[in-house]
Amino acid sequence: MHTLDSQFITFRSVWSRLRRDLGLLIRIAKMTTHYVLAGGRVRREYRRSQVRGDIYWLDDDPTLQG
Question: For residue 27, which of 51, 54, 5, 57 has the smallest C-alpha distance?
Answer without folding.
Answer: 5
